[in-house]
Specification:
Layout (H helix, E strand, L loop, with lengths): L1 H5 L12 H5 L4 E4 L11 H7 L4 E4 L6 H6 L3 E4 L4
C-alpha cells in the first residue's frame, strides 16, 4: 500500500487496513481478488457496518444462497 499511496493515480483513494474498515458506511462491496484474507470474512460484522447490503462477488468465492440468507443483495459475476 505504501507504493500505491505514492502513485499519482491513487491520490483520491482511501486506503484501509482491513476489509471491515473498507466496508464501513459503504453501499456496496465488490470482491475481485482471491486473496486468502477474503475467504473467511465475518459477514454479520460486515453487514452491520455497511449502509446498504449489496455484495458483488467477482471471483464466485461465496455461496449465493448463504449470502442471500444473511440479507445481502448478492450477485456472482458470471453466475445466473
Amino acid at each position: 500500500m505504501d507504493k500505491a499511496r505514492k502513485h499519482p493515480a491513487c491520490s483520491n483513494i482511501d486506503f484501509c487496513t482491513n476489509p471491515y474498515e473498507a466496508a464501513e458506511g459503504s453501499d456496496a462491496i465488490i470482491v475481485v481478488t482471491e486473496w486468502r484474507e477474503f475467504n473467511h470474512l465475518d459477514f454479520i460484522k460486515i453487514k452491520s457496518v455497511m449502509r446498504n447490503n449489496i455484495f458483488i462477488d467477482g471471483r464466485n468465492m461465496y455461496d449465493p444462497s448463504r449470502m442471500k440468507k444473511m440479507g445481502f443483495t448478492y450477485s456472482g459475476i458470471g453466475r445466473q
